[in-house]
Amino acid sequence: MTMSEIISVVGAGGKTTFIEDCAQNLSKFNDILISTTTKMRLPKLGKYNYLIMNRENFEIYKEYFLKNNILKSENYLEELILLKNRLHYFNKKYIFKNIKFAKRCIISQKKVNFHKKNGYIYYFLSEILIGKSNKKFAHITDEQIELFKGKFEYILLESDGAKEKSLKFPKTYEPVISRYTTKTIAIFDINMIGKPIKDNIYNEEEFVKNIVSDNFENQEKTISIEHIYKLITIKNGLFKNSKGEKILCINKVKSDYNIYNKLKKMLEDTDIQIVTKKMK
After folding, report:
1. What was the pLDDT predicted at 89?
2. Tens of pLDDT, residues 82-95
3. Are strands 50-54 and 80-83 parallel, antiparallel or unpaired?
């Protein structure tokens, strides 16, 4: 049985892009499952090999998927693994019989380099949410993760939300971390240092209350490196509810590494590993 690395991605300022980029890199040699314990934007063509969803959802949203570049217009059934019922009612053997069949199909259609293992990217769309403000999928459960665990080398979970903001302070019910998590990766956009606090932070009131001094007037303050250090290291901050290894991804690093080096130095005595992702 494959031992799955189950990675929960939290924070703000590039979670979905980070997951998509990781999946593209890791799938050269591994099978990847992407899902979310909260809500995540629906994937576009080119970001996956297969979508896993129940047939009822597919029939409801098929036209939307075709119209909005989520499925290709021809032969789209080749990209789907449809379940006859909701996953937690379903039999593990049935699901993976379908996945195995899908792999055979895709291999037969492509020229494969058999000197390396070719992996594929699967999205599990547990629940689909499409409305005026939502075009997302949502809510994989630990019971559902249990069915996939051991069948994919990596399971990547978007486990936090930030309402399109680039910095956040977790609310009481956030983030939603699976009990099977082996690594927690927190995303932080380094370009937020120096920006005004007002209107730039999700859950701004709690950020001010927990991170900044009590006699603080929002509109006159900017985000400092000391604020970020505290956000990363306090118990109810960026790594709240984390499980397994803790990894900080400092995102959108530019050519000037001064701020990055200072923050890295401040975090030397913690158990947090640091990686960087450069601005594209």
Report:
1. 43
2. 765 544 444 555 56
3. parallel
**3-class SS of residue 201:** coil
Backbone φ and ψ of 15, nearest 5°: -60, -50
**Token duo for residue 183:** 């690594």
Count the neighbouring beta carbons within 10 Å of the beta carbon of residue 160. Answer: 28
Give me the torsion for CA of 124, 143, 17, 95, rounded to 10°. Answer: -20
* Greatest CA separation for the chain: 66
Query: What does each C-alpha distance from 240 to 1, 13, 27, 214 come to in angstroms?
Result: 31, 17, 29, 22
Per-residue model confidence as pLDDT tens digits over 216-238: 554 458 999 999 999 999 999 99
Number of residues written out for the chain: 280
What pLDDT shows up at residue 132? 77
CA distance 249 to 155: 18
Collapsing DSSP to helix, strand or coil, 211 comes out as: helix
Q: Looking at the predicted structure, is the pLDDT value of residue 117 above 60?
A: no
The DSSP bridge pattern shows strands 5-11 and 272-278 to be: unpaired
What is the DSSP secondary structure assignment for residue 151, as one 8-state letter?
T
What DSSP line would sit under 49-63, residue for residue?
Answer: SEEEEEHHHHHHHHH
pTM: 0.88
Which residues, including other chains, have CB under 8 Å from residue 251's CB and lie 6 or more apart?
A: 13, 14, 18, 187, 188, 189, 190, 276, 277
Q: How far apart are CA 247 and CA 187, in angstroms?
A: 9
Quick one: which of 255, 256, 250, 257 has its CA closest to 277?
Answer: 250
